[in-house]
Design brief:
Radius of gyration: 16 Å
Number of helices: 6
Order of helices and strands: HHHHEEHHEE
Largest sheet: 4 strands, antiparallel
Structural class: alpha+beta
Number of strands: 4
Strand order of the largest sheet: 1-2-4-3
Strand content: 15-25%
Number of domains: 1
Distance between the termini: 52 Å
Shape: globular
Length: 158
Amino acid sequence: MKELTYKQIAAYFHRSYAAADGLWFMKVEEKCGFETALEIDDQVWKVLPKIQARMLKSMLLLDEGMEGLGEGIEARLALEGFEFEAEKENSGLKFFIKRCPWHELMVKSGREHLSEKVSSLICREENSVWASEFGDINFELDEQICKGSKRCVLSFGL
């Protein structure tokens, strides 16, 4: 048997993860309708970010607080294929997303018209949960690509 490289293995699981997320949503939508699928997806994204944050926190030995959160968010965004810049701002952090792979998947699948509704809910949920895993940190979604902006702006503060 031929051996896969670590890069190939990572690409395989990344693609499988993204495909499973999208397929799961579409199958629930077919059976129960869009609003129910979105409601269930929201419930999933109240839990999954806890698992992700705790795993990266442990793997990267991240501390509580804004610095640990920043390192964790940077790792997550890089792993998921986002193009972004991070900036410290007073006692907070801002992430400027230039390219969102989740929005691109929505566009590619002909579901761009749903991207704003899905991401407005899920992005807020996901990043709020991440913030709470590192302490009493607030999250705001200031701009969104799916709402026609050239970028998304994720703001974390105390």
